[in-house]
Amino acid sequence: MDSNSQNEINESSQVHDFVHKSLSNRSISSSKNSGGHSLREVNFAELASKPVRHGSRGADSEGFSSSYKEMNDDDARIIHINDPVKSNEKFEFAGNSIRTGKYSILTFLPRNLFEQFHRVAYIYFLVIAILNQLPQLAVFGRGASIMPLAFVLVITAIKDLYEDYRRHRSDKIENNRLAWVLINDEFQHIRWKYIRVGEIIKVSANETLPCDMVLLSTSDSTGVAYVQTTNLDGESNLKTRYAKQETQVSHPESKMISGLIKCDKPNRNIYGFQANMVVDGKRISLGPSNIILRGCELKNTDWALGVAVYAGRETKAMLNNSGAPSKRSRLETLMNREIFFLSVFLVLLCVVVSVCHGLWLRRHKGDLDLMPFYRKSDYSGGKVEDYNYYGMGREILFVFLMSVIVFQIMIPISLYISMELVRVGQAFFMIRDDQMYDETTNSRFQCRALNINEDLGQIKYVFSDKTGTLTENKMEFQCASIGGVDYSNGKECVEDGHIGYPVQGGEQVLRPKMKVKVDQELLDLSKRKNLEEGRNVRDFFIALAACNTIVPLTVETQDPAVRLIDYQGESPDEQALVYAAAAYGFTLIERTSGHIVIDIQGERQRFDVLGLHEFDSDRKRMSVILGCPDKTIKLFVKGADTSMFHVIDKSINSNTIKATESHLQSYSSIGLRTLVVASKELSPILFEQWQSSYESASTALMGRAALLRKVATNIERHLSILGASAIEDKLQQGVPQAVKSLRKAGIKVWVLTGDKQETAVSIGYSSKLLTSKMTQIVINNNSKESCRKSLQDALLMCKKLGTDSLAAEINQLALIIDGTSLVYILDTDLEEQLFEFASRCNVVLCCRVAPLQKAGIVALIKNRTDDMTLAIGDGANDVSMIQMADVGIGISGQEGRQAVMASDFAMGQFRFLVPLLLVHGHWNYQRMSYMILYNFYRNAVFVLVLFWYVLFTSFTLTTAITDWSSVLYSIVYTGFPTVIVGILDKNLSRDSLLKYPQLYGAGQRQENYNKRLFWLTMLDTIWQSVAAFFVPLLSYWGSSVDGSSLGDLWTIAVVIMVNMHLAMDIIRWSWITHAAIWGSVISTFVSVMIIDLVPLLPGYWSFFNIAKTELFWMCVLGVVIGALLPRFVIKVVVQYCRPNDIQIAREMEKYGNSRRDSQLEMNQIFDPPSR
Amino acid sequence: MNSGTPSSSAGAPGSAESAAPRRNSKRPKYSRFTQQELPACKPILTPKWVISAFLLVSVVFIPIGVVSLFASRDVVEIIDRYETECIPLDSRNNKTGFMWSNADKTCNRIITVTKHMKQPIYVYYQLDNFYQNHRRYVKSRSDQQLRNPGNERDISTCSPEDTTPEGLPIVPCGLIAWSMFNDTYSLSRNNQQLGINKRGISWQSDRDRKFGKGVFPKNFQNGTAPGGAKLNESIPLSEQEDLIVWMRTAALPTFRKLYGKIEVDLQAGDVINVTLQNNYNTYNFNGKKKLVLSTTSWLGGKNDFMGIAYLTVGGLCFCLAMGFMLIYLIKPRQLGDPSYLSWNRNPGGH
């Protein structure tokens, strides 16, 4: 790469000249466009990044070449074709029955318990329950102490049981499906679960494959089979798989060959397979294109024979069947810090109690035996012994342990359960959200990870893939440049299908499934066979129709006279081109391995496919050699502009080439994906040369792929240009608005793409990420030193532009960096500088980045800041980034399910990110933070009330509140409302949140949960516990009240107080909230009454006695008002005098409608009008 | 939750469905519930509401406070602390020794009524510093045994007062019963006996269902350790009201228990002679003993706390109401005024 183009720091106004200079020696010249940004072609080293689209095929060729590596016998599995007994005798391969169910009837109890006790919280529970069983420490009754744990365990177990039951049921259905298997030279129908490795299986059209099998033979004479892999990776297009000629038979019942296959151990790589097959002493290598996987469906092929190589749980589908990754939310991490404080506090309380008890014992040492309420000695046994007294030291220890038991709920175990319930509830609402349902893919929002809902409210960085995420990944043919003339005035098909050529197929009319805009001028031109231009155009479209791997399928429609042609293929670009050709009357009707049939403007023509060089990432083009009906042999090549201009003969048509280049430049500047098409006529001699070298290459045993590539490069030379096509990768609906909202919400959107810089930049503009006012800083370097210099310059400029926020608002920065530069920056000392600079930029675009680099960029931010990161992508190349980010989102779109499988949440469209973050994320965060703080408060207040009482019982941990009330407190008395509020309360309506994205900042600034709030809550807790405890205490001091009655008073007072505290903070009161709050107060009364109806408990009837008195009710009222007064006052003062945005927005929701017009602009628009 | 078990197990059977046209749309069914749009009330703390709330609290609390203060003041209470006075002067150095001796424990006290007392006048004994809520103590009882004659041997929770040295079960067992209060009072006015009615001093519910009618005291106070009161073995527990009262363990270390009721009015200036048997030993833990005569009000006994607390809270709320009124007047803020939004207040920065 020439050095003068490196290291450019330009303000956009200066970019032009500079770029022009640097581009002067390059094939594509920069075209100006109104926005003033410019594009540069960058010479990059082809990194590990493969073009996204061809990922699967790229893997093909890799596997293809590497399968020649000698496989170590130890690492391989050996399969005897059609001999399952021998195949299985040495190693018992897994049978084909699958078990996704986790448990059997016998193992359910131990395994489930074992899994549940993986949580530390449960162990804490258990240890305390066990401690309580020791007679010296028995604080609670046995039942009361085990109940909460048992409750939680049983609930979880029931949930697991139900899920497992569903899995077992689907397993059973799956295992009992039928397949044709060759047994004793005869195909028999047997159940899937009995299929063994080594057996030969026959699959008919539209059947699902029962296991992974190597193709042996298909109904197609060339051994092609088409499969649909929707169940496996979600891709709905057809893929071609090949049977080897050596095993190909014409009839499924014909005599089967026997042989030996040596292949990999089972692994989860869907796109990789390597094996050798020995048939009749001949060794044949097998690659990923020779295997079809369980779960795929056979299409367009009458039958296929294969030998089972992986079965059951060893199939690739099952090995990939892993659950969602487990992440822990930020809030939960913070919460654990606070839980640590609480445990310190708990220990402190226990120490106070035990030390005081020790002092008390010492002071009364001599009196212990005489105190009627202590009575150290036991005289009943005849001999005088100490009764339940083990000396000071142990007494203190016991008191300490007992106080741990009594104060255990200081650590809010119930919080973990409530959090799970709340998350399930929140997930329910996210899934059901109308606005996050995608019509086109018929997919709802999916919550795959259930424990990071609240993180969605704190996102600061969004890392987005481009293709398929910002764009639809549905290609649409837009315009073409043919013979140096630009045809870009396409009109939508006005009349239903009358432009273009319906093709007569027998009695029926064939019509392409998708309609394409047609340029009338071009259409007219294409009909003129005699003109030079006309021939050129015809060749161009024949190339589009032929030079691909598309398979046409005909589909019935409601109208029996019309059938639709559906073009199936792996590349959406190719599909778009074939549809375009069809629209101009060049309809691909039939493709076999030997020939294709193209309907050229009503005339069916048969072309023999004499040779085909598939696309590979080195050549970046594909070519096809056609034997035309007029007996000429033509080579058609299509490929990326960079690679094509190297092989085009520049001496012919130099004007056309220049014109085409400029057209290409303008196409790509408006975000179109371009391909160049060229052709050449082959003389018979040249063809024969090619044919012989092709044959020798394709039968070569060593390095076949490389040889074939060489053959291809040899023939693809001295081409004459036909033209170029431009395909629009359409932006997804609502992307610019979504990006705008996210930016306004203070979220930085970074785009990481494998695409070219031009494409990335143009998508940046069309999605409103980049604006013309931004200062673009481009870093394209290929050495570490130049990278360092660029970064330093960039930082300098940053400083020059000013650092204060006002300046940042005016001088918005955009960083555009490519993968090559990142190679030199990531994982080196330059990382720090990149971070420093990038974090000042409003937008960062990374182009040509490899999957791992994507993850590296996410890590760059994640490791250096506390900000939450979110990655969103749709392809296999986004997986690493999705897993790296705090929140990973998969787009369930065109590119398969890999991203979805790795993600925490999955959805259909990029724009759903806005409701997801701004609405659900905001709510979830606010709800969860409040719920955590409230739970801390709720449990601590209760513990403190118990603690205060302990101070009046000579520190012996008597509780006035009954055991059962202590146990029921966090479940029945106060549990429901927190969960309901955690699921249902909304601080703002959806409309306000979407209207003022800035409100999202509350989560980013951690406004709803932080240390300050925690300590304030704790102070409030202490005050409330004092009020709740001492008001009744002082009212009843010196009276004849008994412990149980006062205990009931405390129970009722605390529960009402705690529920009123919650009620005070609820923002939306729907009937459910009312029911929960008042219901739990009522249920407390009912429970207390029931407990006091048991004559065997000391507190029998005490509630009824004390509730008769006025003093009781006065105490309850006094406690509630007195305890909540400070909180209420502070709340009012803060809301009135220092209102936060959320408060204002709430008020606006209620009162703002009337004066909306008169007020100043409520939200400033930072982005100037679009270009 | 379709959290996505992707799998062929879910996928393959599903393929039959997906082959069918897409008319079974997965679009979530619209309902106000699932869209979180349930009708709801969204209260906002407007100045009007805040001030009315504070005023309401003060309006409710101040009168209640005044009324309860008056009620408490109306209660006439006479307390006579006697635990020291009732030990002969020469024994005061060794009170415990005196209590253990067989000396006569009779003690005469004179109480002057200061104010007219309307009947019923409750006679309480008050113990200070007696931890009836001590963990060892409250657990040492057997409710089964008290209730049911068949459960006489249900004494596992009663140690150390569970059996006699011979191994016979004690009824009622446990420390609580063992330590029952046994001072007795007899009151006279102008040499005329004042009857103390000891019936109905315990809870009806306890007599009816908690203490068995067929359960009689057995082996009670026969052990080596001297406890408190002895019980008449011919009277069932359900009629031993002193025991029933005592077994309702007090919540706090300072407590009163009902001894009986005087059902005549006492006039101001009346002098009452109390003859008491100072049997109960509280000297070894500095427990105080008091005799209390008290009338009652709707609020219970004499306790000013409730009244003061209510007056304080009510007064405070009134002040707060005034304070907020001032704030609202001095610093008015239009609710829901978008110019207060942070991005409108200081444009440029988030």
TrEMBL record, chain A:
Reactions performed catalytically: ATP + H2O + phospholipidSide 1 = ADP + phosphate + phospholipidSide 2
Keyword annotations from UniProtKB, A to Z: ATP-binding, Magnesium, Membrane, Metal-binding, Nucleotide-binding, Translocase, Transmembrane, Transmembrane helix
Membrane topology: Multi-pass membrane protein
A Pfam family this chain is assigned to: PhoLip_ATPase_C
Low complexity bias locations: 1-13, 21-37
Active-site residue numbers: 465 (4-aspartylphosphate intermediate)
Binding site for ATP: 465-467, 574, 615, 638, 673, 753-755, 848, 854, 877-878
Ranges that cross the membrane: 120-138, 144-162, 339-361, 396-417, 936-961, 967-984, 1013-1037, 1049-1067, 1074-1091, 1111-1130
Annotated segments matching region Disordered: 1-37
Gene Ontology molecular-function annotations: ATP binding; ATP hydrolysis activity; ATPase-coupled intramembrane lipid transporter activity; magnesium ion binding
P-type ATPase N-terminal domain span: 79-145
Cofactor(s) of this protein: Mg(2+)
UniProt EC number: 7.6.2.1
Localisation per UniProt entry: Endomembrane system; Membrane
Primary subcellular site in the record, as a coarse category: membrane
Signal peptide: none
Residue ranges of every copy of the P-type ATPase A domain listed in the record: 178-251
Positions of the P-type ATPase C-terminal domain: 900-1140
Protein name per UniProt: Phospholipid-transporting ATPase
Native source species: Erythranthe guttata
TrEMBL record, chain B:
Chain spans, region Disordered: 1-32, 141-162
InterPro entries from the UniProt entry: CDC50/LEM3_fam (IPR005045)
Transmembrane segments: 49-71, 308-330
Any Pfam family hit: CDC50
Main location: membrane
Subcellular location as annotated: Membrane
GO terms for cellular component: endoplasmic reticulum; Golgi apparatus; plasma membrane
Stretches with biased composition (Low complexity): 1-21
Coiled coil: none
Keyword Ribonucleoprotein recorded: no
Residue ranges with Basic and acidic residues bias: 141-155
Top-level taxonomic group: Eukaryota
Keywords: Membrane, Transmembrane, Transmembrane helix
Membrane topology per record: Multi-pass membrane protein
Family according to the record: Belongs to the CDC50/LEM3 family.
The protein's name in its UniProt record: ALA-interacting subunit
Species, as recorded: Erythranthe guttata (Yellow monkey flower)
